[in-house]
């Protein structure tokens, strides 16, 4: 029969290729006559990271494939969300793994550090693929010795990174999905006009409360009013396409105007059943971004602990370079900034009955 061997037994040792796996920790210090005890830990830690990178790439590639459909079927959105949550959980584990590395003292590391030149974590192809697949653009990256980050890789690897960037990152795919969202097209309900009116009411009410306060000084009243903002400050770029385009043109933003408005609506009306998964999906993207920032920062702190202000083995500025990437290499900054546009639930424009009803159940674009 064709499936005769389908359920043949296999031993754990063979299935996981344990012998091959355990043969991959080759200490350079031992090979060069000075066996440094902690080099094995160092190798295993980084090999474990590379295995997790492989799994993250597997999840992100599958998510991008689902988003590349012109109309993302709603039935797939829960799958997308679960796979993004898996990515977040893996990154949380990567952060925890740093604690294991920190059981190594600076002197332990110095026993074998000289054997590592010029190898560097900067040369991790898989991590650069993750960044590119998520949507980190080359123009937004820290340079490597003033040159492209791709200089650390072979010509074939550079071509692979180029193909990822041209193929459409998760950022770009999510942007397109938000632009196509049907949630802004409701007959008889102009979301932005209703939102502007709600912002103006909220600001007027809070300004009145500030000015009537007996315990605030004039200086404090001025400061609090400024912090409050109005439709010409924080909210300006979402109420005016022209202002938003100027923001993007200056490099202060990246997400398109239509996608930003859609993300705002999803965040404001997140409690409506049909918007719950889209909201959680956007929240998961910001979580991934925040966790990667934390991982970079913790890595930078570990490097500072291990080598102080010394130059990294790959020739970078070590701790300084890593700490700068933690701030600069954020990808979904626009989604984080939606928080500055939120208003309290009590101030939300009331949805017309028909609109509220249409958001009150889950439907598929493939069904009537």
From TrEMBL:
Cofactor(s) needed by this chain: heme
Keywords, comma-separated and alphabetical: Dioxygenase, Heme, Iron, Metal-binding, Oxidoreductase, Tryptophan catabolism
A molecular function GO annotation: L-tryptophan 2,3-dioxygenase activity
Listed pathway(s): Amino-acid degradation; L-tryptophan degradation via kynurenine pathway; L-kynurenine from L-tryptophan: step 1/2
EC number(s) reported in the record: 1.13.11.11
Catalytic activity: L-tryptophan + O2 = N-formyl-L-kynurenine
Cofactor note: Binds 1 heme group per subunit.
Positions with a binding annotation for substrate: 113, 313
Keyword presence, Transmembrane helix: no
Residue sites binding heme per the record: 299
Family stated for the protein in its record: Belongs to the tryptophan 2,3-dioxygenase family.
HAMAP family, sorted: T23O
Role, per record: Heme-dependent dioxygenase that catalyzes the oxidative cleavage of the L-tryptophan (L-Trp) pyrrole ring and converts L-tryptophan to N-formyl-L-kynurenine. Catalyzes the oxidative cleavage of the indole moiety.
Quaternary state and interactors: Homotetramer.
Entry protein name: Tryptophan 2,3-dioxygenase
Organism field: Neolewinella antarctica
Organism ancestry: Bacteria, Pseudomonadati, Bacteroidota, Saprospiria, Saprospirales
């Amino acid at each position: 029969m064709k499936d005769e061997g389908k359920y043949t037994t296999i031993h754990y040792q063979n299935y996981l290729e344990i012998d091959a796996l355990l043969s991959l920790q080759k200490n350079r210090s031992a090979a060069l006559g000075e066996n440094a005890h902690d080099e094995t830990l160092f190798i295993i830690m980084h090999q474990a990271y590379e295995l997790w990178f492989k799994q993250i790439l597997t999840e992100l590639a599958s998510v991008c494939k689902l988003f590349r459909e012109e109309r993302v079927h709603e039935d797939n959105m829960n799958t997308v969300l679960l796979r993004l949550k898996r990515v977040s959980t893996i990154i949380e584990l990567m952060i925890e793994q740093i604690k294991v590395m920190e059981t190594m003292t600076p002197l332990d590391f110095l026993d074998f550090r000289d054997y590592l030149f010029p190898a560097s974590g900067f040369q991790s192809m898989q991590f650069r693929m993750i960044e590119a697949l998520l949507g980190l653009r080359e123009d937004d990256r820290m340079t490597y010795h003033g040159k492209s980050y791709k200089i650390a890789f072979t010509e074939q690897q550079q071509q692979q990174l180029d193909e990822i960037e041209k193929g459409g990152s998760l950022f770009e795919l999510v942007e397109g999905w938000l632009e196509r969202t049907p949630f802004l097209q409701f007959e008889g309900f102009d979301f932005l006009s209703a939102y502007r009116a709600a912002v103006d009411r909220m600001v007027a009410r809070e300004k009145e409360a500030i000015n009537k306060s007996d315990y605030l000084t004039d200086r404090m009243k001025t400061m609090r009013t400024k912090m409050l903002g109005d439709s010409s400050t924080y909210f300006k770029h979402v109420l005016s396409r022209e202002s938003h385009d100027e923001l993007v043109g200056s490099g202060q933003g990246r997400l398109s105007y239509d996608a930003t408005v859609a993300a705002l609506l999803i965040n404001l009306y997140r409690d409506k059943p049909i918007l719950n998964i889209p909201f959680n999906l956007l929240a998961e993207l910001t979580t991934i971004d925040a966790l990667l920032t934390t991982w970079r920062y913790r890595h930078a702190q570990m490097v500072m602990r291990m080598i102080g202000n010394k130059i990294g083995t790959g020739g970078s500025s070590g701790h300084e370079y890593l700490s700068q990437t933690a701030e600069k290499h954020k990808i979904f900054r626009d989604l984080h900034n939606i928080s500055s546009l939120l208003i309290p639930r009590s101030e939300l424009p009331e949805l017309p009955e028909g609109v509220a009803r249409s958001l009150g159940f889950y439907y598929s674009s493939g069904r009537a």
